[in-house]
Design brief:
alpha/beta; Rossmann fold
Length: about 240
C-alpha cells in the first residue's frame, strides 16, 4: 500500500533576489513498511526532501500525498496534526528535553496523542523503553546517558505513539560503529514487528547496508533509486 507519493515536487528558496532551487521535480512513491535510505552530497536536497515528506515544509510546486491525503492547500495546523499522529522523528542531536528523565521524555510523546489513563500510559512507556534496551534506566536524565542511550530514548519517543512513518536524519552521526549497529538493529526489529515505515537521510555506509531501498539525490533530483532485500534487514 502506498504511504507517500510525490509528483513533480519542486522547492525553491529565496536568498535576497536570488532563487535557489533545492528540489527539481521529484517523483517518488514510498510503500508502507519500507526501510529506505536517502543519501547524497551536502547541499543535494536530501534534507529538504525529508522536510517535505515529514510535513515540515510545503513545496513550491508539485503534489504530495500522505496516507491517501493530498497535502496541497491544507493549513499549518492541519500539517502539525498529521505530524503529531502519524510521523515520528529521530534527530542526529537527539533533541531530548534535558530536565526530563528517559521515562518522562517518552511519556511526553504519549500524552500528545492519546487519552490513556496513568497506569496504561506508564506500561506503554516501560514496554517501549525495554524494547530499545533501556530497562532499568528509565529514571536517568539525558546528561546521565551515553550517546547511544540517548538515541535509544529518541527512538522510543518516536515509536511510542505507533506512527505510520519514522524519519531519521543522520541518526548514527554522533555514534561509534558498534553503537550505530545496535541502533540500526533496533530500528530493523521495529520495522519488522510493527511494519513501521522508516526513511533515513544519511552519509553513513552502515545505514545504507541495512536499507532495502537506496535513493540518491543529486542537485535536487533523484539520480539512483535502487530496491533489493538486504541480508541485514531480512535475515
Amino acid at each position: 500500500m502506498t504511504l507517500i507519493e510525490l509528483k513533480g515536487v519542486e522547492k525553491i528558496y529565496q536568498q535576497g533576489k536570488i532563487e535557489v532551487p533545492a528540489l527539481k521535480g521529484i517523483d517518488l512513491t514510498v510503500e508502507t513498511g519500507e526501510f529506505t535510505t536517502i543519501f547524497g552530497p551536502s547541499g543535494s536536497g536530501k534534507t529538504t526532501l525529508l522536510n517535505m515528506i515529514g510535513c515540515l515544509d510545503k513545496p513550491t510546486a508539485g503534489q504530495i500525498t500522505f496516507d491517501q491525503r493530498e497535502l496541497g492547500g491544507i493549513s499549518k495546523k492541519e500539517l502539525a496534526l498529521i505530524r503529531r499522529y502519524n510521523i515520528g522523528f529521530v534527530f542526529q542531536s537527539y533533541n531530548l528535553i534535558p530536565v526530563l528523565t528517559a521515562f518522562e521524555n517518552v511519556e511526553f510523546a504519549v500524552r500528545l496523542v492519546n487519552n490513556r489513563n496513568d497506569k496504561e500510559r506508564r506500561q506503554i512507556v516501560l514496554n517501549i523503553l525495554a524494547a530499545v534496551g533501556l530497562e532499568g534506566l528509565e529514571n536517568r536524565r539525558p546528561n546521565e546517558l551515553s550517546g547511544g542511550q540517548k538515541q535509544r530514548v529518541a527512538i522510543a519517543r518516536a515509536l511510542v505513539k505507533e506512527p505510520k512513518l519514522i524519519l531519521a536524519d543522520e541518526p548514527t552521526a554522533n555514534l561509534d560503529s558498534k553503537t550505530s549497529i545496535e541502533i540500526l538493529e533496533i530500528m530493523v526489529k521495529m520495522n519488522q514487528q510493527l511494519k513501521t515505515t522508516f526513511i533515513f537521510s544519511t552519509h553513513d555506509p552502515q545505514v545504507m547496508e541495512y536499507a532495502s531501498r537506496l535513493i540518491e539525490i543529486r542537485d535536487g533530483e533523484v539520480s539512483i533509486d535502487q530496491k533489493g532485500e538486504k541480508a541485514g534487514v531480512y535475515s
